[in-house]
Amino acid sequence: METSHGICRIAVSLGENHSRALLEQVEHWQSFLALVNMIMFCTGIPGHYPVNETTSSLTLTFWYTLQDDIMSFEAEKQAVYLQVYRPVYFQLVDVLLHKAQFPTDEEYASWSSDEKEQFRIYRVDISDTLMYVYEMLGAELLSNLYDKLGRLLTNAEQPTSWQHTEALLYGFQSIAETIDVNYSDVIPGLIGLIPRININNVQLADTVMFTIGALAEWLADHPVMLSSVLPLVLQALGNPDLSVSSVSTLKKICRECKYDLPPYATNIVAVSQEVLIKQIHKTSQCMWLMQALGFLLSALPVEDILRNLHSLITPYIQQLEKLAEETPNPSNKLAIIHILGLLSNLFTTLDITKQEDESGESAPPVKSTPPQSGPNPVVVVLQQVFALIQTVLSKWLNDSQVVEAVCAIFEKSVKTLLHDFAPMVSQLSEMLGQMYSTIPQSSRSLMDQFAEVLFSMNKHCFGLLTVWLKEALQSPGFPSSRVSDEQKDTFSQQVLRERVNKRRVKDIVKEFTLVCRGLHGTEYAAEY
């Protein structure tokens, strides 16, 4: 193994450092092609990385270099090189997908956690290489993969290994995650093939999920195909081994396809509620799931949103009421933070004011929902739970994590609701004021949370915040007897002026806090 490793290093080094020079020596093209084939052998060296071999990973950067050099030539010369090297790169795809295959279940079970992690990273490197190679091979690569997958799944005479199927899907996923495949004529066929896959393995199921997720934008343009894949996603949602892949895929579908999901909404909400109640998923996946439901509910009529919200969050509100009555301890702290996190993640994406995705790009107007009438559902819920949140906050005021979780609910709600947040401004402002004058020993992190909410209100509810700041700061002795009316006016003007620079608002709040506490200019100021 050491000998082959050394030879491979020499071949790769020669190829990487002299690729362009060797390409330009057209009279010796066969010699360079022989070197390329030697490196191809090293890429496809027998055995599974990293248990049986560690050589193949050394070669991946060479294929980037060679492709870059070929594509850098002028069009006429490039066409000649592509005629020679496109077949080589198609062969490379086959080799890489073979190397990406999982070993047998028994062998994989014997690997250490470190070996499994190295193999995962190796597959990511292969995925990146396939994505890059696509730039050279184009749509023909997708057709090639589709043909192979189709033959594999429709050949009843020859039994297929799940590893082979998984690797081909992984190739599709690698490309679809980063490349716009909406134009591709093979994607409908791929979506049609997915339900035919005999999913009897966690790794295969994971890749099926991630492949569906990678095609979410395509599904938004072809909603008739949702019925083929959505049942698979909802079924996978109940499997804790598929937690990351199933939840992230559902989130992508709900974000990209939300205007086509109302017929499926009842089922999606019901399955999601079930897995949340059973606590199948870890905290981060629970948060993703709530974001998915926020996207989903955004496209429904207000009365349907309110009905679904009631069934979805009532159990958590009841649990929070019980927790609020208990004496603070580490156990109920985690439960409180979890519930507040679920609410803030739901409110992050539950947006009926405009049809926008996470990146801020407007959705196509042809798919927009009709104008909504009546109160904003998020405001309705916030008004219902506001007193409860205040109770929780009063008991946990000196705990930065709980305060952060409370602030996150309102900060994310303001960002989502924009002017619809208006009915809540006076209540929230009053709560912020109470927070500010009752936590004299607050850490910098708590003041940062205060500043986050203040910044969001300033950005999205400027007029109402202006009125509240003026009224609040007129009160004698508020927020401290140490600050003069002139200093209050300066603070107010500075905050209201900063509607873009969040860091500056945090600095303004910090400086004002130090003045209120008589610490400005002292050695204690460094702590903040």
From TrEMBL:
Keyword annotations from UniProtKB, A to Z: Nucleus, Protein transport, Transport
GO biological process: protein import into nucleus
SUPFAM superfamilies reported in the protein's UniProt record: ARM repeat
Gene3D superfamilies recorded: Leucine-rich Repeat Variant (1.25.10.10)
Protein's cellular compartments: Nucleus
Chain ranges passing through the membrane: none
InterPro entries according to UniProt: ARM-like, ARM-type_fold, Importin_beta-like_NTR, Importin_rep_1, Importin_rep_2, TPR_TNPO3_IPO13_2nd, TPR_TNPO3_IPO13_3rd, TPR_TNPO3_IPO13_4th
Pfam families in the cross-refs: Importin_rep, Importin_rep_2, TPR_TNPO3_IPO13_2nd, TPR_TNPO3_IPO13_3rd, TPR_TNPO3_IPO13_4th
One Gene Ontology term, aspect cellular component: cytoplasm
Family: Belongs to the importin beta family.
The protein's name in its UniProt record: Importin 13
Organism in which the protein naturally occurs: Pygocentrus nattereri (Red-bellied piranha)
